[in-house]
Each structure stands twice: as C-alpha cells, then as structure tokens.
C-alpha cells in the first residue's frame, strides 16, 4: 500500500515537472517593439539558408559563418515537392534532412525561423508544390478550395508533427522561435476577393491551432488575423507598419541581391545600399531583419523554377554559392549588426524623437530614463553629402547613408563607408588530368514503342510527363508528293510551331533543323523555319523542353507547357497544311534517361564512342561520359562548361543541374552607384558573356578515384573544352579613410562620454591555405579607383609599398594602421587621406611536399 502511494506521488511529481518544464520553455512572445525571448525584447538579424540548395556537409560551416557575421536566426522554407514526391511517400534524407538541418542550427547556438508555407515561391520548381497535387480531383491552388486545404493541412501537420517529435520548437527547448504559414499571399488574395480572404483566415486559424508555442508569421499579407504577425518583403521596408499597433515591425525578406535567369545578366546589390536599407528600417522601429538570401546556394537537379531560372542561386549573398565569404558584403553587414546591437537597449525600450537636420537629413534619437541614448543620423539625399550639427557636434554624412551613434556622440559606423576588405575571386585549374570522353547518341530516327502513346491532336506536356523529365517528343509524319514545286527549285516550305513553353528542337527525318526558346517573361513562343522535305514520307520530331515549372502567378497550376499548336506547314502547292489535329506519337523523356546512363549502376549495354571521334562531331542529343579522380585541396570545385551548349550534368549519379551557356543580355555598364533606389535593372554585370559558365560540384559527392561525370548535350558543343576548376581568392583590397568610423576605434566608458580615438586599421586576409605573395598596389594619400583598378592620386606617400610589403607579404593576414605616423610623415597636410591597397593571394607552398 505504501509502495502504491509512493508510485502515485512519483507519477504526480513527474507530471508536474514535465508540465512546468514545458511552461518554462514557452518563452517566445511579442509586443509592439519586438519579439521577446525569455521575456527579453530582442533586435534579431536573420539569414536565409535553404537546406536543399547546399549539401549536409556544408551546413555547419555555413551556419557558423552566419553566426560570426552577426546572424541570430537561420531562416528556411520547407519544400513540399522534395519531401513528398508522391502522395504519402516521404523523403527526409540527404539534402532533404530537415531535422538534421534544424539540429545543426541548434548545435551552433542560433535560432530558426521555419517558413512552412507550404507554397514557397523561391524561384523553386512549381513554387514548392509537388506536381501530383495538380491532379487531385477538383483542386484549385491557394484559394478557398476544400481539396487544396485538405492537402495543405495534411502536409503542414506532417512538418509540425515532425518538429514536435524531435523537440525542435522553442516551447520544447528547441531552436525554432518563429514559423510562417502561406507566403506572399496578399497580392493574390486581393485578386481572389472573398475566396482569398476566407482561405487566408482559414490558413492562419489552422496554423495557430497546431499549438507550436511560437508566433506565426504571414509575409506580404496586410490582413493577417490575430495573433499572426504580418511582415514585409522587399528591397526596402522602412515605410512598412504592421496591421495592429501591438505587433512588432518585421522584415522577413531583405533582398540581398537578385536571382539569375538563363539569358539574363548577373545582379549585384551594393552593400552600402543594403546596409542603408537595414539601418533605415531599424531607425524607424524595425526589430527583425532576415536577409534573403544569406547563402543562396545551387538549384541542384531540376529544382529551379521560373521558368528559365539558372542553376546558380548565388543571389549576391554574403556567403556565395560555394559557401565562401563574399567581401565586402559579409564584413560590412557584420559591422552594421555590431553597431546596431550596441543600441539594442535603447531601441527596444522607447520610441524615437525625430529631429530634422536639413532638407533630406534627420536624427532619430532613442533615449531612456535609465540613461541609455542612441542616435541614427540619416541622409536620404542620393546625390549630395551633408555636414550636419547634432548635440553641438558636426557629422559628415555621405549621400544615401546612416551614421550610428550608440552613445549619441560617437559615430561608430556609417552605412556608406566600407572599411572591410574586398575579395576578388578566381577560378583556377585543378591538378585533374584532361578528361577522356566517350559518347552515345540519342536515336532520333525511331522511338521505343514500349514507351510511347499515340493520340489525335496535341497534348499538354506536363499532363503527359508529370514532370518526371524535361523532355517530351511530339512526332508525326507528312507525305510529300514528288511534284511539289520546292522539290524542283521552288522556295522551301515553312514550318510554324506554336509552343506554350519553354523550348523546342525541330528534327526533320532525324536531322536537327533549328531550335527556338521562350524567355522567363515570355515563355510562349512561335518557331518559324524553312524545312527541306523529301519526296515521300517525312518524319517530323519536335523535342519539347521544359526549363523549370512556374513558381509564381495566380493559379499557375493551370498554366500550360509544351506544344499545343497550331503546327502548320506553309508554302506547299496545296497551301497551308495544319498538322495540329492529326495523329501524334509521344515519348516521355530520352532513351538515355530510360537506360539510366547517368548512374554508376547503369547496366545498359551501350556502345560508347571513344574520345578521338567525340571531340570533332558537335552532335546534338548526345551523352558524354568520363571518369576522374578528386583533386587535391579543399577549395570548392566547379565544372567550366564554356565550350558546351545546353543540357544537364551528373556526378556519380547526382544531378548538378541544368546548364546552358546562353549569352546574357541586359543593361550592363562599368558604373554601379550605391546611392538611390535599387532595382534588378541596376548594377547588372556579365552582359555578352554566358549567363552561367561554372557549375558547382560538391566535394562530398566525390570519391577519391573513378568519379563518373555524365553530360547530356542538347545542341552540340565540344566536351574537350570542359574542365574542373577550383574557386579561390585571387586578391584582397582595402580602402580606408584616416578618420574612418570603426566600432573598435572608440573606448566608450559610458553613454555620452567618449574615450581616446584609435586610428583605423586595414585588415587583409586571404582564404585558408593562402598567403599574401605580393602587393599589387598601395597608396596612402589620395588614391583613385576601386579594387582591381587603383591608381595613384595627387597625394601619395612614397613609403606605401615598402610598409605594406613588410607587414603583409608571406603572411595569411596582416593589419596596418592608417595614420601619418605609420607612414613616416604627412604626405599632404590638411587633406583627408586614405589607404588603398591590393594584395595578391596564392596557395601557401611552405608545407608543400613533392
């Protein structure tokens, strides 16, 4: 009896302990100022890193670099189509191991924001929806539609349940402090009217009822119902306010750059403008900023959407596609975060007093009763600098900039003054021997009867392929009489093919006649080309190619892909011949795909041609393969595909993604002024060059020897020009004023009191395994130009090269003080001077063993 009583007491104690533990973990709330964690208001900086766009062996390094860059939270979408490729068939392995990714965040001591969606946009294939969802009877995406809501709730419950079972919500002691339902629904909801409003309210209610214990977000949704927080996405969000006065001001997508599309240029967003946008947002009450992207990564396989989104999703992010630090973006934002965190107590405790300092200049002052005082001095003029008076002191504000004064006196950071180094990257040859290629041609003259279907008329492509492949053959035949005029010297007939997207290769009697493509903006196109038929039966084979399914748009699930006609021949003696309604034969995919040629485990008996023949042929629809050993070192690797046309790449059976060396068109020029509103049409580079030349090869996919590389080439190309390269820093630059504001320059004893000024310093650092081998340029004075293009100005200290060489050459990193005394004398008194330097980095050979 006593034992029973003791057991009951023990059970009661255990139950109370668990209940109290859960309550003590339920610590994420919010008020009008910020997210509160453990009852403490926080200014939080977040970075988007999407787990499928990198490899698991990269995750820890990426997250650690983000943490070192001042990031508090890692944000990721959840990608439904990779997790549930067919109904109730789930995949959480490899790059799709969401639990491992979240636990890696937790291990690094950071928080997580899980944007479940499950619509994600993200330039991801079909916006993250699995294609099978389109074929659920009666379904209509993202509206008040019962089949869609049922499937959406089922998947959301699956993800929430998985996170709960692993104790990953903050209410359970895990790292997830925020979750998002839906994604950028506001514009679409307004188009849908009452049905959109009903759906949005349902989604919010459904999410909240899951009891995660953390706040839910809806981005770009002004009508988000309580308790869901509506948030902002965009290049700038300083004018955004939440829809209720008791909700915090949050920016879930601060676009660090822009995505790349095949045929388009590369977009670069100056870090001065991004820092200005973030500082301005915080100045006006913002307390949560997420950089989209912090690491963009790679659209491996066929995950890129659009259509026409490139395989690289670099996004000009602080960590580049390969996971390397992009300077100066990474370092300048890190300094911004440090400066703002110095103001955190004041920012979250009170509202600002706003004072005009000029026609386009303002001071936002946060002052508390306890004595904290922080100020933000802003110059909104995009063309002119300004000198302003604040607290009886003068401050110089460059155009389009914010100066941060944590103590209301000392400017420790200005968004336009970049003091960290700039790193210039290069692609270098590896020690891998030249590839020895073999090739296999797709047989265009006939189709495999076991994998074909015949139907009258033209069929929509995805309805046939279910997106199992990019390729669908449309074939038919026409009989040409021997008396046709064009066979006797007349003008050749014209074949017109109307396609809903995205590309078509036209074959007549097994020969490629021409290829035509749409664009991301105009995916529909018309192929028009002369054709040379022969007398008798002629076989027309149209290879329709998808280049990623749409990821954004109202009811994009209803959009068509492929050839829906008309398909017409003009110029025959009989006049127009419409082929649209005659019998067509369809084959899903390529023969090489059916034979699994990309896999090391392929057992197909294929006769591969040897390399001596391969390089001279320039044959379309050809498979190429070779083997290679892993290169030495640990630098990120890539394939240089400049000599090829368009197709896909596999390494040891893993798909690198689509490649296409199309040449970029855009609005490129040599100048990129950081000041003024940024937009994707601004600061473009790479016009006239291949949109994407290099394709990331993760080292974790490689074996020590005998790695299988398979290429499928649609157009032709010369595989002998393909090479394996490594990415590394070629040189590092710095450009620092002698009175440059730095956080570490000031010893602030207390708010309102300044200590001794410390001269700024130039910090130069090569990549791991590299040393500084020479100084390419150095000038203390008034140098001109920018990294890679410096030149001496009217004022120059003759000791510049000697001092930099002595301090830096032969070392992996060095620090040089920017002061007159360090360079012997003042080269030009009463003139503001700067130190500009470019140092060359190369592999450290001191430990080299032959």
What does this structure look like?
With 850 residues, this protein is an alpha+beta fold. The chain has four domains: 43-262 and 287-324, TIM Barrel (Alpha-Beta Barrel), CATH 3.20.20.80; 433-440 and 595-628 and 636-721, Sandwich (Jelly Rolls); 444-589, Galactose-binding domain-like (Jelly Rolls, Sandwich), CATH 2.60.120.260; 728-843, Rhamnose-binding lectin domain (RBL) (Jelly Rolls, Sandwich). The chain is 17% helix and 31% strand. The protein is built from 14 helices and 43 strands. Strands 4-5-6-7-8-9-10-12 form an eight-stranded parallel beta barrel, surrounded by four helices. Strands 20, 33, 37, 39, 41 and 43 form a six-stranded antiparallel sheet that branches. Strand 6 (111-117), helix 5 and strand 7 (176-181) form a beta-alpha-beta unit. It is globular and about 95 Å long.
